[in-house]
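stage 2 :: seqdesign
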């Protein structure tokens, strides 16, 4: 019998009731980009998984009296495509564009990034610079608002109590002069050696207010208050920036680890502070470079997922074909399977009914039960992208989705796209350009490329590179893969 159980509450009140009843035994699950890797690595070996991914009341962005409130289930991808965030919190918008990779951004939430905050959390640092407030709820204590500095307690620790749920994060709007810089060992899926967020208010050519936050330099993300005070009332000159770069190094206490030494991080903090301030006061040049950005700026439509959900909820509508899947595990009459979760899902157009374990990933379900071996199993922790599928209208890494979350959703794998003309063109182009060597990464690459080209028919090479950033290849060096996608897109190679 699995040591995990699963609940999918339908309201916030029901969720809070479960958390009050279960306390530390419960783990909230939404995007699952952290919790499933923790289950895979045995950091979590038993718990009640409380799936809140369907709580619409925690989704979306609201603006009331210049106060911007982001619901706890708003994804990073949705923030990237929000004009409100881009225009009023440019520093956060930039951070979201550098967060993980496009596939992870389709699942990860900003509030999930805060719940167990890493010292390097890319979503937390800009919120510090925006002086954000975290709103949490509990049936015992009601709602409470915490300044984000009070919310951050230590590495992976927050002020969130076992019976509390993050409801939203909010901050004042009109923060156009801001910039975020992330320095990592690669452009995607890299833990920051240092990340820094700067928000400035300029009056009459001098700095009226400065807010500076840094990550990966202390047990939690921190504000550089001495440096902020030094900058206030001064014009931005090379001399002032040089002094600020020296001062900020006295306010941080980075460690040395496998990614960088303490000394390197100290030096890097000063260099990046200067560059980030320069970028903040020249937003025009930053905005002009968006078309050459490393990120895919196109939002994928949510309509297919909504249509499928409505279709599955309509019991009277005929389904082309159905498959009942029995458990692939031997059934032991002496073992209870009562904690399994019944799901109904469409895979490549075929409705499937099955029972899954609470902790089972969508990857495991597709390979072990649906027998979709075109979905490759690589790292099982969201790094490699070999398991990429289209889930609810979004390209995702299936190892980062709970199988139970697939209930009433639609999934497309490479095999289900075999009669699609665009996929056929991509496959031929991959063969022609030598983009396939061992072939293990190829299904994920193709699924990602097809979904991207459906949204961006004539992308630049930089956009293609950014779109494929969540799919790793050990063989080709990526050039041939980008060449193959570029050829299909009509872009010069």
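stage 2 :: out
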């Amino acid at each position: 019998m699995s040591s995990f159980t699963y609940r999918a509450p339908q309201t916030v009140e029901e969720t809070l009731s479960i958390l009050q009843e279960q306390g530390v035994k419960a783990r909230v699950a939404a995007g699952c980009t952290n919790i499933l890797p923790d289950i895979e690595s045995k950091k979590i070996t038993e718990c009640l998984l409380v799936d809140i991914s369907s709580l619409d009341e925690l989704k979306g962005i609201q603006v009331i009296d210049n106060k911007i409130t982001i619901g706890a289930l708003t994804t990073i991808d949705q923030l990237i495509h929000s004009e409100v965030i881009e225009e009023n919190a440019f520093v956060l918008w930039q951070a979201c564009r550098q967060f993980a990779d496009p596939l992870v951004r389709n699942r990860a939430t900003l509030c999930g990034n805060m719940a167990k905050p890493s010292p390097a959390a890319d979503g937390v640092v800009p919120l510090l610079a925006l002086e954000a407030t975290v709103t949490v709820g509990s049936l015992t204590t009601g709602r409470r608002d915490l300044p984000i500095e009070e919310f951050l307690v230590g590495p992976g620790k927050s002020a969130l109590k076992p019976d509390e749920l993050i409801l939203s994060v909010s901050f004042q709007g009109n923060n156009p002069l801001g910039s975020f810089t992330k320095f990592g060992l690669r452009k995607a899926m890299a833990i920051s050696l240092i990340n820094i967020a700067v928000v400035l208010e300029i009056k009459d050519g001098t700095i009226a207010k400065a807010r500076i936050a840094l990550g990966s330099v202390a047990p939690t993300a921190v504000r550089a208050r001495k440096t902020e005070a030094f900058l206030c009332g001064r014009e931005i000159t090379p001399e002032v920036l040089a002094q600020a770069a020296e001062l900020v190094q006295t306010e941080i206490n980075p460690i040395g680890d496998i990614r960088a030494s303490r000394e390197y991080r100290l030096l890097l903090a000063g260099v990046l502070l200067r560059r980030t301030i320069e970028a903040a006061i020249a937003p025009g040049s930053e905005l002009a470079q968006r078309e050459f950005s490393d990120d895919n700026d196109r939002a994928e439509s949510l309509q297919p997922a909504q249509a499928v959900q409505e279709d599955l909820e309509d019991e009277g509508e005929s389904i082309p074909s159905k498959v009942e899947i029995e458990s692939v595990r031997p059934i032991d009459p002496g073992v209870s399977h009562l904690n399994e979760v019944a799901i109904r899902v469409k895979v490549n157009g075929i409705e499937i009914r099955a029972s899954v374990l609470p902790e089972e990933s969508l990857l495991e379900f597709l390979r072990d039960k649906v027998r979709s071996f075109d979905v490759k199993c690589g790292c099982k922790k969201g790094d490699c992208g070999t398991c990429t599928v289209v889930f609810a209208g979004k390209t995702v890494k299936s190892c980062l989705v709970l199988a139970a979350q697939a209930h009433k959703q639609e999934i497309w794998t490479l095999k289900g796209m075999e009669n699609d003309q665009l996929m056929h063109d991509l496959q031929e182009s991959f063969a022609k350009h030598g983009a396939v060597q061992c072939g293990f990464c190829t299904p994920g690459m193709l699924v990602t490329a097809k979904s991207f080209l459906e949204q961006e028919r004539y992308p630049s090479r930089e956009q293609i590179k950014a779109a494929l950033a969540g799919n790793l290849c050990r063989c080709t060096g990526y050039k041939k893969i980008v060449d193959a996608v570029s050829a299909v897109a009509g872009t010069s190679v």
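stage 3 :: structure notes
- The chain has three domains: 56-292, 303-414, 421-489.
- The chain has a mean pLDDT of 89.
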